[in-house]
Amino acid sequence: MRAPGIVHHRTRRRRALRRRVVWTGGEVLVTVGVLLMLLVVHQLWWTNREARQGAERKVQALEREWERGKSARPRESSPAVEGDGPVSGTPSPGREKQRQTRTGDSEGAANNTSPQPSWSQAYAVLRIPRLGLRVPVAEGVSKQNVLNKGYVGHYKDTQQPGRAGNFALAGHRNTHGEPFRYLNRLRPGDTVTVETEAATFTYVVDRTLPQTSARDGGVIRSVPRSTVRPSYGYTEPGYYITLTTCTPEYTSRYRLVVWGKLRSMRPR
């Protein structure tokens, strides 16, 4: 038979060991929780702060550069020509000719004064008044070199602003500046402007595709039309802009798409 004192001593040691294990486990869980909280703060606050400040500095740098270039060019007396409303349906021959003339003039100006942007280079400014958005546009959709800087990225092999076809862009909806956080708030008739060194292009929001596959390449084609939901999109060539971002928020499973049509071009 074991002595009662020895049994009591071993029981106390086991209880102390269990308390240490529980305490250590609690400390580990608290530490992990703090690290996760810091990670969330970094992703949701710090990356947004850094990206937004960097994007705003880039916008200001582009505007200063363009202003210096404008001051160095000789003044022209010919006034700018603007459109007379959203482009929709089949325009009359007169309006179509006028639109083609504006496009040709702007393309010529862009070709003469702005070389093809280098990969990841910021070369334009996107403005969306309804969202209070002013953000640089860079060539390509690289996360590290473009999107994570708070910029909007231009899809490779889609057209440049103001040219016939589709000027397609992508931007983060959450973290890293989240320029397209509220893209779902855009409505038909809202304006979207793209300013380059050569001209300012104004598009009018025309329609929205609330959700489609991340692999739906049809939405950024020259004549944009969803291959997943074919009832969304267009059937005729035109002058389009496409804005894409992830949906639902805080996921990257699907894509939200907003389309618009070119309304006017104003040379700088």
From TrEMBL:
Any one GO molecular function term: hydrolase activity
Comp. bias regions, Polar residues: 109-118
Residues annotated as the enzyme's active site: H172, C246
Keywords per UniProt: Hydrolase, Membrane, Transmembrane, Transmembrane helix
InterPro entries, alphabetized: Sortase, Sortase_Class_E, Sortase_dom-sf, Sortase_E
Species whose genome carries this gene: Streptomyces sp. R21
Transmembrane segment boundaries: 21-46
Region (Disordered): 65-118
Basic and acidic residues biased stretches: 65-76, 94-105
Xref: SUPFAM superfamilies: Sortase
Protein name according to UniProt: Class E sortase
Gene3D superfamilies per record: Sortase
Any one Pfam family match given in the protein's UniProt record, by short name: Sortase
Superkingdom, natural source: Bacteria
